[in-house]
Amino acid sequence: MNNAKNEKMHEPFVRMVKRDGMSRKKAWLIRGLSIVFALLFCSVVTILLTGQNPIKIYSTMISGAIGTPRRVWLLLQTIAMLLCISLAVTPAFKMRFWNIGAEGQVLIGGLATAACMILIGDKVPAPLLYLFMFLAAIAAGALWALIPALCKAKWGTNETLFTLMMNYVAMQLIRFFIVKWEVPKGSGTIGIINQDSQTGWFPAIGGNLYLLNIIIVFLLCIIMYVYLTYSKQGYEISVVGESENTARYVGINVKKVIIRTMILSGAVCGIAGLLLVGGTNHTIATTTADGRGFTAIMVSWLAKFNPIVMIFTSFLLVFLERGSGEIATVFRLNQAFADIISGIILFFIIGSEFFINYKLIFRHSHKEVK
Amino acid sequence: METFAIELKGVTKTFGSLVANNNVDLSVKKGEILAILGENGSGKTTLMNMISGIYYPDEGHIFINGEEVVIRTPKDAFSHGIGMIHQHFKLVDVFNTVENIVLGLNSGKKYDLSEAKKNIVDISEKYGFVIDPDKKIYEMSVSEKQTVEIVKVLYRGADILILDEPTAVLTPQETEKLFAVLRRMREDGKSIIIITHKMHEVLSISDRVAVLRKGEHIATVETAEASEASLTELMVGKKVKLNIERTEPLNTCVRLSVENISCKNREGITLLDDVSFNVMAGEIFGIAGISGSGQRELLEAIAGLQHIENGSINYLNPKTGETSDLRDHTPIEIREMGVRLSFVPEDRLGMGLVGNMSITDNMMLRSYRRGKSAFIDRKKPHDLADKIISELEVATPDAETPVRRLSGGNVQKVLVGREISSSPALLMAAYPVRGLDINSSYMIYNLLNKQKENGVAVIFVGEDLDVLVELCDRIMVISSGHVSGIVDARSTNKEELGLLMTKAKEQEGSVNE
Fold first, then answer.
1. Residue B362: closest C-alpha in chain A
2. Which residues between 454 and 513 in chain B have a beta carbon less than 8 angstroms from any beta carbon of chain A?
3. Measured between alpha carbons, how far is A318 from A83 in angstroms, rounded to an integer?
4. Distance of alpha carbon B254 from alpha carbon B280, whole angstroms
5. Do B16 and A253 touch (CB under 8 A)?
6. Same domain for A248 and A163?
7. B387 & B445 share domain
8. For B57-111, how does the pLDDT look when each residue is reduced to its tens digit (9 = 90+)?
9. What are the φ/ψ torsions at residue B436 (nearest 5 degrees)?
10. Same structural domain, A170 and A206
């Protein structure tokens, strides 16, 4: 048995064991703890790398995000835009259709909006112009999503590559029209569209320029939640996403669902483009979408495709981004440090899911470790 | 004290709150065949996985030849002479026998394929394997592949072999050959553990039987002193009536008539070749055959999921008396034609149900389209779910539990329950009891029988020939996509079916003799 004792030392140091479900309360406790740990870890990193007081850094972060009413509005507006694009990609991802072309779909929707504002802005009455902007943006976004969907349904092309490539096509189109509509000539930008007349600009509500955007996105969020959870089409999306074979087996026309859902996804992206150009930026550039077409994918997955939860995940990401941007300027640290901080926090939050699904068992101890 | 080849003491393994094995003691002597018997979910495979290094036990000790060992990885298991032959083969299709066997061996030397080949031939001759060292895996039948897996384990010097349900994929004749080889290995002093839940095989091959129930070791008995009834009782924990009450078909008339259908897969390989048969209302029509002989394609063709090259599938509507050809219609069109067809596919969670959805949401799969509203009515499906849960005794916390969390038998009850709930005129069930415990299996048989008595035409694709012979009225045997015979179940026997199952293969001359 002596021999056996020695051998026992070879028991693996740590093993992973899958948990079979955990109470919601406990799961949220773990998620909350992960943020606490992330902040502690960030503090250590901050002290080691910069010698700054981490408490100060955090308070700067918070004030950077919500320090003044203007910042709060900006924060809400940015959340609304990210949420809008996240809502757009969600039906596609729920169907396991990798739409990474939201960027392009937003841009093209924005381009269509800008085109309406520039070309017919002074020719039609305002209500009609808004209608045209709305329809053009939706149609353009939907078309941009429809092309890869049709090719996937017809020839089984890879949607990931296809939607990605459509982003570049959209960008180049915008470059082309920037040259065409340049104001002033030679500046390389379109400038603010209809700066004097403000034709086609979204009206401010109660003096607040962004409120309309925020309300629209909030309504979209609720509509999308109801659509995905309670409608027949939403149910079909879930079935196709979970198992195409099951969908075929019960007679769902998988191709039709793919095409219909992608049109929806593209159309909502088009609305995001509309809100960006008509509501906030009043101009269009290749950077109008600003990578949010990709960040939105993360928002959607983090929320497990639940539109209501997406309000929180988009808040988290925007808060981190704005807050860390502030520390970069206030403490004269470069943007890379801000990215390190938000990277660490995200890593902890996503990593906490592991501890919700698995537990670790260490050698000789059979206690659970969270 | 007698030294055992392998001995387990107090082995416990839990997954979350589920206790897969609880304080299990087990021992295998040298030169012995031990059968492990137990219903699904009784912890047989988990136990074996702990011996072969896939899982690590929470508690307990493993002794090999009297010495305690620690097995952390499959590699550790190999170094202790333990080899496991899994249910699903782990072979590289484009490699031949020899290449597959030496693959992953790292002796520090260069691969010497010719010497390896010589060794493999030696091993084969010693135990009486029939193996072609140069044949590629993709050219092999299932039983040949299994042979390669066994030789692979022996080549690596295993003294303790574990076989996980090795006969599930074999014909009766192939099973006999496998057993002959196993007996020869036993004479050579190897220890063999065989997992199976076919009772007659346990009785014919093993020296001792260890029975597991709900993760616990109930008893180990000498096979010579055991009987089918006594083992079943140990396994289930109570006396079980093991017979199927087969009634004579009443008021039969043709419900489905399949004529000369053929189909090919994408590569142009023939999957179904000129298949014709009739199914009567009020009978259970069995389909037997080695798995992958075209059963799946046949049922899917009838259900409107598989395109066929030629032939026709005629359904006689019992209400209108009209005949409609189902060929090349989609499942929806078939339903709209008034065909009351239910289909329990082989792939339950991949086709029949959506694993991540709740029981209620799975109930709606067939019916959610009803009504003009754009929104879903979850009330009726919920009621149906509750009804099925109580009538079929589905073990689940509630109707909102995702189906994937249920055990195999309960998943099947949900699926069969849903399919029967639409009161079909034609019911197709592919391997409906695969992976189910005895009680659940008999429940399914009874459900099918009840459907038959109600005048439903039932098509039953099965793999256990004993059951087919007992349950069905007529049995069609299919071999490589070809109908090799339709026999009366009351007058046939397993041997006849077994011969029919391999008939076409032998005609083509690619036999594994």
1. A239
2. none
3. 10
4. 4
5. no
6. yes
7. no
8. 888 999 999 888 888 888 888 889 999 998 778 889 899 999 888 887 776 667 7
9. -95, 150
10. yes
Contacts of A11 in chain B (CB under 8 A): 56, 70, 72
Residues 6+ apart with CB under 8 A from A95: A237, A240, A241, A257, A258, A261
The fraction of chain B above a pLDDT of 70, given in percent, is: 96
Side chain identity at residue A77, one-letter code:
Q
Is the per-residue pLDDT at A29 higher than 80?
A: yes
Domain co-membership, B119 together with B198: yes
Q: Does residue A9 surpass a pLDDT of 80?
A: no
Position A1 pLDDT exceeds 50: no
The Cα–Cα gap between B121 and B98 comes to 10
CATH of the domain at B69: 3.40.50.300
Does the beta carbon of A176 lie under 8 angstroms from any beta carbon of chain B?
no
- Are the C-beta atoms of residues A248 and B305 closer than 8 Å to each other? yes
Whether B335 sits inside 8 A of A251 (CB atoms) is: yes
- The CA radius of gyration of chain B, in Å to the nearest whole number, is 24
* Count of other CB atoms within 10 angstroms of residue B321: 7
- Calculate the CA B5 to chain-centre distance: 30
The region of weakest confidence among A259-273, A334-348, B354-368, B469-483 is A334-348
Token pair 């303790």 is found at B160
For B95-152, what is each residue's pLDDT tens digit?
999 988 888 777 666 778 888 899 899 988 888 888 888 989 888 888 888 899 999 9
Q: Do both A185 and A72 map to the same domain?
A: yes
Determine, for residues A245 and B351 on separate chains, whether the beta-carbon distance falls below 8 Å: yes
The answer to whether B58 faces chain A, any CB pair under 8 Å, is: yes
Q: Is the CB of residue A7 less than 8 Å away from at least one CB of chain B?
A: yes
Give the residue numbers spanning the domain of B101. Answer: 6-236
Q: Which two tokens stand for residue A241?
A: 């996403």
Model confidence at A130, pLDDT cuts 50, 70, 90, reads very high
Distance from chain centroid for Cα B381: 30
Residue numbers of B between 395 and 434 with CB closer than 8 Å to A? 405
Q: Kindly report the pTM of this predicted structure.
A: 0.79
Euclidean distance between CA atoms B429 and A101, whole angstroms: 43
Average pLDDT score, chain B = 87
A57 in any annotated domain? no
End-to-end CA distance of chain B: give it in Å, rounded: 44
CB proximity B103 to A under 8 Å? no
Q: With an 8 Å Cβ cutoff, is A4 touching chain B? A: yes
CB contact, 8 Å: A127 with chain B? no
| Predicted complex ipTM exceeds 0.90 | no
> For an interface test with A, which of B55, B346, B369, B378 has the most A Cβ atoms less than 10 Å from its Cβ?
B369
Nearest to B68 among A4, A20, A253 (CB): A4
Residue B499, CA distances (Å) to B24, B99, B171, B172, B174 in order: 41, 32, 9, 9, 11
In chain B, the residue whose alpha carbon lies closest to the alpha carbon of A15 is: B56
Q: Quote the domain boundaries for residue A285.
A: 68-332
